[in-house]
Amino acid sequence: MNAECPGGAAGWRRVLTLILAVPACLLAYQLGLALRPPNTADRSNSSPPLRLSSGLEAELKGLEVGEVWEDPSYQTIVVVKNRADHRIEVSDLSGSCACTLVEPRSFTLNPGEEVSIRVTIDLTHRFPHQFGVERRELSIDLRPTLRDRGVTADGWRVTGVIRSRVSLDSRDLAFMDLCQEDGPPVSRRMGLTAHVPLTALRAEVPPGVATAQVVPVAEQPGRYHVVVTPNTHMPRGPFRFKVILTAELPDGRVLRVSEFPVEGEIAPPVRVAPDCTDLGDQPVGTKAETVVTVILPQGAEWSVGRVDSAAANTTIKSGPIVDGNPTYLVSYPIDQVGRRSTQVRFLAVRTNGASELVTAQVRANGISPPQEVRK
Amino acid sequence: MIRFLLGAVVVLVVSQETILWAQGPLDKIVQSWEQRKQRFQTVRYELDGTASLKLGLEGKPPPPPTERPVHITLLLDLARGRVRIDSSQSILWEDGDRYVPRVSTVSFDGKAGHARMERDVNELGPDNPDATISRGPLRHAQVDSLLWPLLTAHGLIPTSREPARMDRLSPGLTASDLFLGGTAAIGGGQATIVLSEPADAKPPMIDEYWVALDREAFVLRHVCRAGKLPFIRVDAEPVRSEHGWMPAGWVHTVYSSDEVHQLTKLKVTRFEVNPPVKDTDFDLPVPPGALLWVQENPPAGEGLDPSRPALTRYRVGPTGRWEKLDEVGFTTMEGVQQPPRSSWPTWSYLLIGSAVVAVVAVLVWYRRHKSVR
Predict the structure, then answer these.
(1) Which of the residues B8, B34, B276, B286 has an alpha carbon 20 to 30 A from that of B42?
(2) How many Å lie between the alpha carbon of B67 and the closest alpha carbon of chain A?
(3) ipTM metric
(4) Contacts of B227 in chain A (CB under 8 A)
């Protein structure tokens, strides 16, 4: 074959090389693009210059922090130098995010002098779209206010990429008024994702205030729920505490990986539904009327002892008992144009002598009655 | 034998009831809502009503008229998760002195969200699009709370935590997502008050549903509160029909700092069960001359910032051809702007390139082989 076709084997090799080389190059290029870390693009276009119009110049080292682990008190030192030929007084230097603390906030630099600024950032701070992600942008502006020129138009930017070992599904856990005094326990859960292998994950809450339990989500490796149950025997009023999450890594290190606040209120055991009724526009000469229910704790220990209203023209009539809860028809005349409201007070008493005063508000907007059409 | 069978039926019925009651009201409510989801394949509603603004801009009284007409048509393809809303209403102009019409059609065709707004009717500015197509997760495309009673009538329960979206009408609630708030009197009957899980906002938000257990878990009242203050309240009037308890009309109230901001009263003027639907009902055509925005929302988990979607702007030519004006790519969560992605997938370039090279190589080889022979 070689004798008949001088370029035979070598030609085939060339053809095959050509066939394979081009797609191989394309593949390599595409692979390179796909595998390129997302933060390797040229950031110089989006980052402000290091030297400001005032003559202050920051060193790049403290501004570009690279990839950092999520930390509630991450610190970077930014060295700022006066490159101008005159003294510069900075009356305030602050970060663009409330999660940033700058020290010192005010300083004076003579020409050629420099100061080290400690920037402490709570890297657990996230925007709503950043919940649940492993890597996210760090971008915080530092903007100086000069004593003689006010806030400068330019500033510096701390940039980098924040990595999380654990990311929460939301910022905090709100119970609002779901917990009632001495009522049944109410639990809510916070979802979280572990982005690194963990050997253990623990949740801590202040003792006596609540309980917290970490529950792995079935068939979803790396997903957990932290189930939080406030103690409903706490004193009435608002409560706020933090759930601290501690993880044990495969190398034996134990780290505080995240935390989230829990807020709510231990509400009174008796309430009125609805506690505020807005009846909207009501013609003058008619009556504003609504039915309210006093919702009592389950059991026969509670009853409504007294019902009254500060407004003399408000009438309150007892209605049927609904599932153990007394109902009332509240009405008052719409006697003038404009907004009117009345408040009704209900005193609920318990067999042991305890009592609860709850109120309901009924509002309406008096309007002129429709005119009769004259023929 | 008959006695035995009758006895078995009675035992079965009693035990079913016992199971329902043993489940508790929350399970029963969720079960009824699930049954409502299965009732129809498609539905079409026509609504008519009025909207009245009570508060103007910056303390100014709202301009006349006190009541403006509202007309809405809702088409739901419950079986395939498709939706189309045609609405004609008016909104307060930014100067606060007059109202401007808002006549629009929005839809979700099972793959993408569509919106169409006629330029002249809606007094659109030159840069505003006549049409938009949104692909990917439609996090921003929430169904107007004016339509909540129609959604809840079909077991699609919106919450502040997971609002009804065009591409996902209902989050799919379970009894463990709800809390019991007691029983109260309403409209001559009684309702079980059900509370949603609070949405973790500042201040936190919660939904309160007043559910008529004896009317197939019809939601008589839906109140959204931010902290202690309501910001939306919907009071629905149920009507018993051959299709069960359905909404006849409702009053939708929007509050601003505890003051009534806008009141909308709507009545169902037409209700069609299982109307025939076609794909073009949901995949809306784009008229020639339109300024079209095609937005690509990044899926979760790809490290792309969902608040900065990729956007391509087109002008639709007289023949219907889309002529590209400009485009912006995705932005990563690290803040890096990516170049716009090609509409062709990467592998297609590889395939075409390889095929061209292969054809050329074969031709070269064939010619050489032929010349040698």
Answers:
(1) B286
(2) 12
(3) 0.73
(4) 176
